[in-house]
Design goal:
By secondary structure, this protein is of the alpha+beta class. The protein has nine helices and 14 strands. Helix 4 crosses helix 6 (about 170-195).
Length: about 375
């Protein structure tokens, strides 16, 4: 069934499941004082305490000059390969996405979350995962993240559900379209280089998506009076092939799991954080691994981020590429469709990488 919004024809979103409705955080946080509802207070072992930060204080994500990478610079290619094998994360600079495009995206994000709560609720998720609200809420008992978000499909355009886009907000639609165009170009270049590094044809990873879907999660992390008790986002790995993250320049919130501890990711102005996600781990037979990451809160500054998830078509197959398992044992199943993986992923609360067991052969977990 097609949906119509102000004369615009849109398709229904992917049938990945739904999430339980819970109160949003921003308007509560504004008057929270020192009180934190029990639903947000983490168990002691799950709290972001200093003692669980990485013991290697010199840990720093690899930084790649994208302008050199696209030209085939050998040093940058080696750095990309190293980053995907050893970290699962990297930052890219000189990527060619204009500063005004990035600035407009950040402004659009702030404008949406500044809307009155009744206005934002017009785009509530309801019976889907698209729209405004909280993802991965599967029970009344689970702990909640200290964040609100808006989740939309941006590409292909025919898969957009414009009922979930705040298109009446001045500049929002144009900002998202220009930004997603930049993400498309960066994604295509990255996948081409990763294909070559994995010993495949240049366009192999793009082809394995069948149809490449871009989804965008715009996240608002309000200040928390007791940030040591909460998490902005629970530990997890992403369910797509790769993720491209734009984060606030002035506050550290993202942390990644590395060598048994958590490494804070210091923002670089106008850079993008790139991470390997579960699909690429499966396609590469574990050569490149998706990595747990989380977001922490702070007591003074609002943090916002824009995550672009690159995902294959629902009918696309998971599992190692044939060229990768010619000289190594197969570690992942090859008979799982992406939609089945997403239904499994959406139906669980975020708990590290437990959901990736669904992909692995039984003797590999």
């Amino acid at each position: 069934m097609d949906l119509k919004v102000e004369g615009v024809k849109v398709e229904e979103g992917p049938a990945w499941g739904k999430t339980l409705e819970v109160p949003t955080v921003k308007d509560f946080a504004r008057t929270a004082s020192d009180f934190i509802p029990e639903k947000y207070v983490r168990e002691y072992n799950d709290r972001p305490i200093e003692s669980v930060l990485s013991p290697d204080e010199t840990s720093e994500l690899p930084i790649i000059d994208f302008s050199l990478l696209v030209k085939g610079d050998e040093a940058e290619l080696n750095k990309l390969d190293y980053a995907c094998k050893e970290w699962g994360f990297l930052q890219i600079i000189n990527h060619g996405v204009a500063e005004d495009v990035i600035g407009n995206m950040k402004a659009a994000t702030a404008s949406f979350f500044d809307l009155p709560v009744d206005e934002k609720n017009k785009y509530a998720m309801g019976d889907s995962v698209e729209g405004y609200g909280h993802l991965f809420v599967v029970s009344e008992e689970q702990k909640l993240d200290w964040a609100d978000s808006l989740f939309v499909i941006t590409r292909p355009e025919e898969q957009r559900n414009m009922k979930k886009w705040p298109i009446t907000l001045p500049g929002f639609k144009n900002a998202v379209e220009e930004y997603s165009t930049g993400m498309k170009r960066v994604t295509e270049e990255l996948l081409a280089k990763l294909s070559l590094l994995l010993g495949m044809e240049k366009n192999s990873l793009e082809k394995q998506h069948v149809v490449m879907r871009h989804s965008m999660r715009i996240i608002y992390y309000p200040p928390c009076p007791k940030p040591e008790l909460v998490l902005g986002c629970s530990p997890h790995s992403d369910a797509g092939s790769i993720t491209l993250l734009l984060q606030s320049d002035d506050v550290v919130g993202l942390q990644i799991k590395h060598k048994g501890g958590w490494v804070p990711v210091t923002p670089i102005p106008n850079a993008f954080v790139i991470n390997v996600a579960d699909v690429l781990e499966s396609w590469s037979n574990g050569l490149y691994k998706s990595i747990e990451h989380r977001a922490v809160a702070n007591s003074k500054i609002t943090r916002m981020s824009v995550a672009t998830f690159i995902q294959p078509a629902d009918e696309a197959k998971m599992g190692p590429a044939k060229s990768i398992i010619q000289d190594r044992p197969k570690m992942y199943k090859d008979d799982i469709k992406y939609i089945d993986y997403m239904v499994n992923f959406i139906g669980m609360k975020l708990t590290g990488k437990v959901h990736t067991n669904f992909l692995k052969l039984e003797n590999e977990y």
